[in-house]
Write a structure and sequence with these properties.
about 675 residues, alpha+beta, seven-stranded mixed beta sheet, about 25% strand, binds fe (ii) ion
Length: about 675
Amino acid sequence: MTRLDRRSFLASAAGMGATLLWTSPSSAASRVAWREARTLYPEGVASGDPDAHSVILWTRRPFPDRPRAVLTVEVARDPEFRRVVAHSTAPVREDADWTCRVLAAGLQPSTVYWYRFTDDDGNGSPIGRTITAPLETDDAPVRFAFVSCQSVNEGKQNAYRRMIWEDQRGPADQRLGFVLHLGDFIYEVVEYPDEVPHRYDRTVFDIGRIPDARKAYNFHVPTNLAGYRMVYRAHIADPDIQDARAHFPFICIGDNHEFSWQGFQSFIKYEGPPEPAQGLRVAANQAWWEYIPSRVRKASGPGLASFDPPRVETLPIPSLDPDGFGDERNNRVAVESMTAYRAVRYGRHIDLIMTDLHSYAMEDPTSRPEADAFSVKGFPLLFPQEALEVLDGGRHYDDGKPPSAIALGEISVPNFRRDEPTFTVLGHAQKAWLKDRLKASTATWKIWAATNGTLDMRTDPQNLPTTLSKPWPGKGYATFGGGDFSGALIERAEVYDHVRDANVDGFVVVSGDRHSFWAGYAAKALPPANYEPVGIAFIVGSLSAPGLSESLEHGLKGEPLRPLYVVERPDGTKEATVNLLIKRGVKSAFEYSQSGDIERARSLTNPDLAPHLEFVDMGGHGYAVVTAGSGSISTEFVCIPRPVRPAATPDGGPLRYRVVHRADRWTGGKPKLQLSVLEGDPKLSI
Ligand SMILES: [Fe+2]
């Protein structure tokens, strides 16, 4: 690094208020009397948000007998610490729950480093490994994994075991630069096995008791900071999560469960109407900041030592402003206590543009009790598309002329959204930022990390044969309800129109949350409306949390249309016909349920249902790997069997399938994904 680089870096690091670990040009063997004492560092180590010259290092070392202490931090070019390039101290404090963050700076780009922490008595942390980002001019292809939804209460993290196994054995150019975690890093909804020993196919594992918990349904949820901290510790105690954090740098953006399952802004929602929870939102943000090393902004300023939460009062939030944000001071202060949306440039080929889809979102209209009227008996999970469109539009639907009621067959449902703002997930300021970032990016691929799926999920009940069911009362297609970005129709259209109008090329969306693998095209509308893709989109299966297929296997008992969702063969095998239902339509799903003949089922595809989909697996778990180069981008889905117990082998166990979707750059033309099945037979998904 030149002196000028160093000076400007120091200025920006000072801006972060960082505990700075500056590297020296020469290296020497460690002189620290480190001996590993894992039990004193029960959550291990981690690193986050690498750039070309720096990365944040993390550990947790509780000291029961004092309020603060100091650790020594070392960074080396080798795991034996014979070539230590940096050496510094870092505070650990009780008011940060003994978590510790250090900005290691002055590092070389695209370089692997090892790091460790040691206390005054020589008690050492496990050794972590991290990697800096390539320079913006670096033309080498970039590889990273993206993941979401890790349940330690109901599953095992075999997918991380597999990811580490392959990374340690792969050729150098196949190794991952980082793991992008798209949220549900924790599930704040915790079951206690003495109350709920099983759910679906799952054994409920004991992960401890949340202090001061509130009971909601079968779950216990945090009511304060101590509760969230306990839940983070319970997740990071998982050996596979802990090893993954020690082996790869993580870049994380939270989803809903980092705060509250059905929460939004600083509202929580269980059986009744939304409740204000400003204090809880601050607590959730603080615990996230403490346990996830990152460069998010916090309201208290840039220091890395502690979160220093703003004071808020939990007061009613009586109304929404015109942008759908709760018009109450404490709501604003609570949400703004941490700003998680941010972008990361990683080499020449990718800009990672991460959005927060719950801190600024309105309540999902389809989750409101008034929307229950759109559930039609005999058509499980389905929600009329035309109703979703009206509810999404609010007072702006149809150029400001929303209907007072929505017809559904013989009945008429009041339009409870007609005087409310258009549904937003991003909120005003974040949406403007997203559009600016997309337009300004000079990377080959502009990767929007959207946490929630953006690909439409619908089917065609209007095509059901009359011999199978009564007629569908909707006007045409049925969605599976809102609840993610595919239900934010007007906002999605605004983003995609911007991609088109600003000539944003190389537009790619990656998401999690849906607990299923999807590959397809980013389009604002589907037939009979004009279908015009502006990019490609992928959704990763959950690491471990149960997906729709699994719940369907245990549900819909006695429903006449059940075979369109899941079919049980005489030998007990269950097959996810729901994949065909979404990708090919009711006739295809029904044919397969009857004959088991996939070719005949495919021949009955409704071509207008899902031109935007290449792949759907509502039962897949695992992770995805993106390889982004100058001419093409590919996304590999690594799908494991349902992770209900720990893998029996150190490689994380067998795979169900491994498939790759690849797209060449489509500058000027339309994107086209090409599928290669490398292992297994995901025949209902393709
Ligand atoms: Fe999830």
